[in-house]
Amino acid sequence: MAENPSNKLTDAYNQMLARAKQGLEKAGKGLGHALEAAEQKASELGELSREEAGKVGDYLRRDLHDAGQFLAETGQDLKAWLRFDLEQVESRMAELFLTVADKTKLELDKLAERAAQVGVWHTGEVTGIGTLQCQQCGEELHFHKTGHIPPCPKCQGTKFSRISWNA
Ligand SMILES: [Zn+2]
């Protein structure tokens, strides 16, 4: 059976998140290292090409960095970042994401690396659980699981941001 290429990358995102968590727990060398090791593993095992692995790693890094920064700066919980109830997320994914986002927060605390990073998410890219906002019309897109970013359902816009929390 042919693999669906769109599931391939979303599955890889979830797998990479799980491996990053394992790496953090076992090696304890920090998130950057755990993510690199997870990227390498995916291409070594032939699950992804090296290029795909780098891309998926970047998607994951971007989401985690944003979540970690939110947790560090606002002192609020993941639910506030998601902008919906954690019960709407499959429990294994919720636990995974929460654990790794929390580690990211701790690292950012340590590094005092708080400079606001303004990320842009584009249609066609992969993102994990959370909420994106259309830069053109403000429409909110809720992701209850990892998925490909569609065009904005309201205005067909293709650029999205996380909702700003320090405005
Ligand atoms: Zn829009």
Protein traits:
6 strands; alpha+beta; 167 residues; two-stranded antiparallel sheet; four-stranded antiparallel sheet; binds zinc ion
Which consecutive residue ranges, at least 5 long each, have pLDDT under 50?
none
Order of SSEs = HHHHHEEEEEE
Largest sheet: 4 strands, antiparallel
Total of DSSP H or I helical runs spanning 4+ residues: 5
- Ligands bound to this protein structure: zinc ion
- Gap from first CA to last CA: 49 Å
Q: Kindly estimate the percentage of residues that lie in beta strands according to DSSP.
A: 5-15%
**Mean pLDDT, nearest integer?**
89
Helix-residue proportion? 40-55%
Structural class: alpha+beta
Number of strands: 6
Strand order of the largest sheet: 1-6-3-4
Rough shape? globular
Calculate Rg over CA atoms: 15 Å
List the helices and strands and how they pair.
Elements lengths: L4 H22 L4 H14 L5 H25 L3 H5 L8 H21 L9 E2 L3 E2 L2 E5 L5 E4 L3 E2 L10 E3 L6
Helix pairs in contact: 1-2, 1-3, 1-5, 2-3, 3-5
Bound molecules: zinc ion.
Structure characterization notes:
This protein has 167 residues and is α+β, with helices and mostly antiparallel strands. The protein has a domain at 5-118. It is built from five helices and six strands; from the N terminus they run H-H-H-H-H-E-E-E-E-E-E. The longest helix has 25 residues, at 50-74. The mean pLDDT is 89. The structure holds zinc ion (ZN). Residues 134, 136-137, 139, 152, 154-155, 157 line the site of zinc ion. Zinc ion is lined by residues 134, 136-137, 139, 152, 154-155, 157.
